[in-house]
Amino acid sequence: MSRPARLLAVRLMSAASRLLPARLSDWSRAMANELAAIADDRSALLFALGCLRAALSMAIAERFRSALYQLPTRSLAAMNSLSTRPRLLGLLCGVLAVGVGLAYLEAAGAPSRHLLVNFAALVLGATAWLALGRTAGSRLAGAGVAILALSVPLLLTARFGLVADGASRWVAVGPLTVQVSLILLPAMIILYARRPDPIGTAGIAAAAFALAIQPDRAMAGALAAALVAVALESRGRLPLLASAASVLAFAWTLVAPDTLAATAYVDSVLYTAFAVHPLAGAAVVAGAAALIVPAVIGLGRGMNDRPALLAFGACWSAVLAAAALGNYPTPLVGYGGSAVLGYLFSVALLPAAAREADARAPAAPVAAVRDPDPAPPELRAARPA
Amino acid sequence: MPRKRALSGHARALLAALASAGPRWSYGYELSSLTAIRSGTLYPLLIRLEAQGYLEAEWQPPAGAGRPPRHAYRLTAAGRLLARAEAAGPDRQVAASGRRAGEAAS
To answer: Which helix (H) or strand (E) holds B27?
Structure first.
C-alpha cells in the first residue's frame, strides 16, 4: 500500500477528532496516536475509517441528546413568549377552535358547504389578522371614528336586514347569510376598550340601539358584559356612559320576545355534539373554551392593556354563554363564518405584545431544566439503574 | 422487575481479552487485533467501560523518539469481577456484580 493511504488515514483521523465532543478529546487523541503504532498502511486506513465511523455516530448521538434535553426549555420559552402575545395566541386559539369545529361538522354529517364556509372564513380572517397587524400604529388613532362608522351597518341591518321570526340581524352576501353584529361588534368592543373617546362612545351607543331594535339578545349581552368590565376597570365617565347604554339595550332585548328556532350545526352545538360522540362533545367544549384563553392568560400574567383583555374575555364569554343558554350561534366550533370573522377581527385588534403591568419587573424567567446527572449524557445511557 | 440485557458478543470478547491481560496494560490497536473488533466498535465500548468504572486508562510515555504517547487500558477490580461473572454466564454475572447485565455495552 502506498503512502497516500497513510496520509488519508491521518486525514480521516483528524476529521474524527474534530467530530468528537470536546470532553472526549483524550479519546480522540488516543485514537490518533494509535495510528503511529500500526505499521501497515492499509490497516491504518481501516483503523482510521472505523474511528471516523465511531466519532460520527457519537457526534450524532450527542447532538440528538442535547436537542432532547433542550426541548423542555425551548417549549417553555415558546409558551412564555406566546403568553405575552395576545394577538398571536388569539389567532392560534381561533385556528384550534375552527379546526375542532370542522372535525365536529364532518363527524356530525354536516353538508360539505358548511365546512367550506368555515374554512374560507378562517382564511379570510387570518388574512385580515395579518393586514391589521401591519397597520397597528395608525389604527388606534382613529378608533372612535371607526367605531362610529361600524355602527352604521348595524343600524342598517336592523332597518333593512333579512327578517326571521321578527328579528332582523342578517344580510345576504351572495349565497351566504351573514350576521353583521357577530362580525363587527367584537372588533368595535376591543377598539373602544383600548381607546374610549367621545366619538367612540357615540358609536357604541348607536350599536347598542341597533342591537336593541334588531333585536339581538346574545350580542347585546356581549356588548353589555364587555363594556361593564371596561367601565369597572377604567372608571372613566365615557366608558360608564357606554356601558349604561349597552345595559339598557340588553335589558330591552330581554323584554322583547325571541322565538327563533335552533338551526342545525349553528345553535346548541355544545349539546348536540355530545349526541355525535362524547369525545366530539368534549372537543367542542374545549374548542369553545379556547376562545377566551388569550384573555385568561393575559390577565393571569398581570399584563397591562387590561381593559382590552377584559373586554375580549367578557365579550366572547357572553357569546358562549348565550350559545349555551339559548338558540344563538355557537362561535367557531359551529357552522357560521360570521363568528370566525368576528373572532379573528377582534383578536387582530388586541395588543400585539402585551407588557407586564410592572415595567421594572423582568419577564418571568423560564426555569432551566437542570440535568441531575453530572455524567456526560453519552455515557449515561449505559449506566446501571 | 428490571429487564436483563445480555452483553454483546463484542463486549464479552473485549472483557475476556482485557481479563486475560491481567494487570498488564493493553492498547487500542492491540485489542482490536486480538479480538477482531473494528476500531469503530472498539472505542465506544472502551469509553463506556471506563465511564462505568470497569476500565482504567492512562497515558504512557512514548516508546521511542518521534513516537507519540499511547493510551493504555486495563480492567479495574469491578471490571475483573464483571469479566469473571460474564465468563461464568449471565445469571452469575448479575448475582456477582449486583448490577444489570448488559449495561456496559450495547
So the answer is: strand B26-27
The whole domain housing B91 covers 9-96
Give the HSE-up count for residue B59: Cα atoms under 13 Å, Cβ half-sphere.
Answer: 12
In a domain, B101, yes or no: no
Mean pLDDT of A163-191: 92
Which residues touch A63 (CB under 8 Å, ≥6 apart)? none
Which of A160-169, A214-223, A370-379 comes out lowest in average pLDDT? A370-379
Q: What is the pLDDT of residue A162?
A: 92
The CATH number of residue B44's host domain is: 1.10.10.10
CA–CA distances in Å: residue B94 to residues A181, B2, B88: 74, 11, 11
Grid coordinates belonging to A105: 361538522
H-assigned helices in chain B: 9-21, 28-35, 39-51, 77-88, 90-97
Residue in A29, A47, A375 closest to B39 by CB: A47
Q: B48 and A38 in contact by Cβ < 8 A?
A: no
Chain A residues with CB-CB distance to B68 below 8 A:
32-33, 36
Q: For an interface test with A, which of B43, B59, B71 has the most A Cβ atoms less than 10 Å from its Cβ?
A: B43
Above 60 in pLDDT, residue B99?
Answer: no
Query: How big is the CA angle at A174 (ends A150 and A97), to the nearest 5 degrees?
Result: 65
A196-254 pLDDT tens trace = 999 999 999 999 999 999 999 999 999 999 999 999 998 889 999 999 999 999 999 99
Inside any domain, residue B102: no
Phi, then psi, of A179 in degrees rounded to 5: -95, 110
**Nearest Cα residue in chain B from A379:** B48
Interface of B with A in 20-39 (CB under 8 A): 27-29, 32, 38-39
Q: Report CB contact under 8 Å: A34, B103.
A: no
Residue pair A222/A263 in contact (Cβ under 8 Å)? The answer is: no
- Do residues A28 and A55 make contact, with C-beta atoms less than 8 angstroms apart? yes
| pLDDT tens profile A329-363 | 999 988 999 999 999 999 999 988 766 555 444 44
Report the domain count for chain B.
Answer: 1
Q: Does B3 reside within a domain?
A: no
Other CB atoms within a 10 A radius of the CB of residue A145 amount to 14
Are A242 and A147 in contact by the 8 Å Cβ rule? The answer is no
Q: What is the pTM of this model?
A: 0.62
C-alpha cell at A20: 468528537
Decide if B71 touches A, using CB distance below 8 A: yes
What is the model's pLDDT at position B104? 43
